[in-house]
């Protein structure tokens, strides 16, 4: 059974600031407890980087207790009872006991300060996070059997799930996140409440939903977390494109289950990540989210062919647009949006390589179009193979091995990652005697196409190609002198 380490071991595990702060509050006549995630993590044999405390002291009293001891304090969360402080290298949050509830139509809690640690723990999200260590005695307070639920690897709420999720609907997302991070299940009553109250998630800000989603995707078992969001109906509100994959039913089984395929690709992409010093350090949200979303364009592009087959032409392009729109709605940063959308757009580029082979020009374009995303594209493309046909899987793996080898060989010869025309814009303007403008861009793109098709050219060859191109452009013809007809 999971147990806390002995008190002497606990003192050795915890930063010294924990016990010091406990004595400060005790000497001032107040209660102080380490609470939530840090206590849960001690049961799991690890020390949390976050230090969260709860107390019967009001924010003003907390500031008085730490005055002269803390190196700095912040009162940004004062309205919610939270005082943040720094002592040495440790950042700490101390929050007054709460007895809070949410207005059903509001995103913000209605905060009322409490006087009881047990009541405060009752308001917390899950039993495994409703445990506390009184300080400095290190007495465990676990009124809602959080240790038992943690041992059973199950998510329960201290009170009725409906009350917990009404207080903060984001807790429904958090339940799925814990399922992903800790590889655990949710209790039947929790799953039922998530299903019945899924619509409540709509009052939560996009930023908070996004942050929980990122933690879920980066968890040890993201497939389980996503499955829970879909099964409870939450995905229809936060990731409707993924929920639509579940609805993509083919009763005649003319194509594989797109939803289960997408979950398997996500699982395989997470498994293909390299270590912290590799090309794609894990967990990598961009790679994982692209894996989950790579086929979201299929429902909109499904067509039944006269032969009875099913096609999804251009689902990569359609999917890329859908990904951009969803990530913008969730307030992701532009770099992440561009990266995920680009991977979705490129994930089909490889197919056909094994049958027809590629010219050096096609390999150059593959590398150039992927840019810095190439290591992720390698892993996404390999993860996209979920066929049970062993020979087909081996054939695709062999073809991609061959492609990667050709990329390495061409890179060694040509520095493909930074492919540029053999003449830059300044040289183009000098040789043609033109000023900055659209014509320079056209010339640059023409030379870049030549570079892609033929590889590097020496300076003389590049200049000849440029002048040959220029001779065919309307801008190269001298303007007739006014009043004189052109011959």
From TrEMBL:
- Does this UniProt record's set of keywords contain Nucleotide-binding? yes
Q: Which domain of life, per UniProt?
A: Bacteria
- Does tRNA processing appear among the keywords? yes
Q: Which GO molecular function entries does the Swiss-Prot or TrEMBL record give?
A: metal ion binding; nucleotide binding; poly(A) RNA polymerase activity; tRNA binding
Stretches of the chain forming a coiled coil according to its record: 393-420
Gene3D superfamilies, alphabetically? Beta Polymerase, domain 2, cca-adding enzyme, domain 2
UniProt KW keywords: Coiled coil, Magnesium, Metal-binding, Nucleotide-binding, Nucleotidyltransferase, Transferase, tRNA processing
Q: Which GO terms describe its biological process?
A: tRNA processing
Domain HD/PDEase, which positions? Answer: 254-415
Q: Which cofactors are required for activity? A: Mg(2+)
Q: Which InterPro entries match?
A: Bact_CCA-adding_enz_type3_sf, HD/PDEase_dom, HD_domain, HDIG_dom, NT_sf, PolA_pol_head_dom, PolyA_RNA-bd, tRNA_adenylyltransferase
Q: Which Pfam families match?
A: HD (PF01966), PolyA_pol (PF01743), PolyA_pol_RNAbd (PF12627)
Signal peptide (residue range)? none
Provide the E.C. number(s) assigned to this enzyme: 2.7.7.19
Q: What class of enzyme is it?
A: transferase
Cite the NCBIfam families for this sequence.
HDIG (TIGR00277), tRNA_CCA_actino (TIGR02692)
What is the name of the protein in this document? Poly(A) polymerase
Q: What species is this protein from?
A: Paeniglutamicibacter cryotolerans
């Amino acid at each position: 059974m999971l147990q806390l380490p002995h008190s002497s071991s606990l003192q050795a595990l915890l930063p010294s600031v924990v016990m010091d702060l406990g004595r400060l509050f005790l000497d001032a006549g107040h209660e102080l407890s380490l609470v939530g995630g840090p206590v849960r993590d001690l049961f799991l044999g690890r020390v949390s980087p976050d230090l969260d405390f709860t107390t019967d002291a009001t924010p003003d009293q907390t500031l008085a207790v730490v005055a002269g001891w803390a190196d700095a304090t912040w009162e940004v969360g004062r309205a919610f009872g939270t005082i943040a402080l720094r002592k040495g290298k440790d950042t700490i949050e101390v929050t007054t006991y709460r007895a809070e509830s949410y207005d059903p139509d509001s995103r913000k809690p209605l905060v009322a300060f409490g006087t009881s640690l047990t009541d405060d723990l009752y308001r917390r999200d899950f039993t495994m996070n409703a445990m506390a260590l009184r300080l400095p005695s290190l007495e465990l307070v676990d009124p809602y059997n959080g240790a038992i639920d943690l041992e059973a690897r199950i998510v329960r709420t201290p009170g009725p799930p409906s009350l917990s999720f009404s207080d903060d609907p984001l807790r429904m997302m958090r339940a799925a996140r814990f399922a992903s991070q800790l590889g655990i299940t949710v209790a039947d009553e929790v799953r039922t409440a998530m299903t019945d109250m899924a619509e409540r998630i709509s009052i939560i800000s996009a930023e908070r939903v996004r942050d929980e989603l990122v933690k879920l995707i980066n968890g040890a078992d993201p497939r389980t977390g996503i499955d829970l969001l879909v099964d409870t109906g939450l995905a229809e509100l936060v990731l409707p494109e993924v929920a639509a994959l579940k609805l993509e039913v083919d009763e005649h089984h003319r194509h594989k289950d797109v939803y289960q395929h997408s979950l398997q690709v996500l699982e395989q992409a997470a498994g293909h990540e390299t270590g912290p010093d590799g090309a794609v350090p894990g967990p990598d949200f961009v790679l994982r989210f692209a894996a989950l979303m790579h086929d979201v364009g299929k429902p909109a592009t499904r067509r039944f062919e006269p032969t009875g087959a099913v096609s999804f032409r251009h689902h990569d392009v359609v999917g890329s647009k859908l990904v951009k729109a969803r990530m913008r709605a969730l307030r992701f940063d532009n770099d992440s949006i561009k990266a995920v959308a680009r991977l979705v757009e490129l994930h089909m580029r490889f197919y056909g390589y094994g049958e027809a082979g590629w010219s050096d020009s096609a390999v150059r374009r593959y590398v150039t179009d992927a840019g810095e995303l190439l290591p992720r594209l390698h892993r996404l493309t390999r993860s996209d193979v979920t066929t049970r046909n062993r020979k087909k899987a081996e054939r695709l793996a062999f073809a991609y091995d061959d492609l990667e080898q050709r990329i390495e060989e061409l890179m060694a010869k040509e520095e493909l990652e930074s492919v540029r025309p053999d003449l830059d814009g300044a040289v183009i303007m000098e040789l043609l005697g033109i000023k900055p403008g659209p014509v320079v861009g056209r010339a640059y793109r023409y030379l870049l196409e030549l570079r892609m098709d033929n590889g590097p050219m020496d300076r003389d060859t590049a200049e000849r190609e440029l002048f040959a191109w220029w001779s065919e452009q309307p801008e190269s013809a001298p303007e007739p002198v006014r009043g004189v007809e052109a011959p």
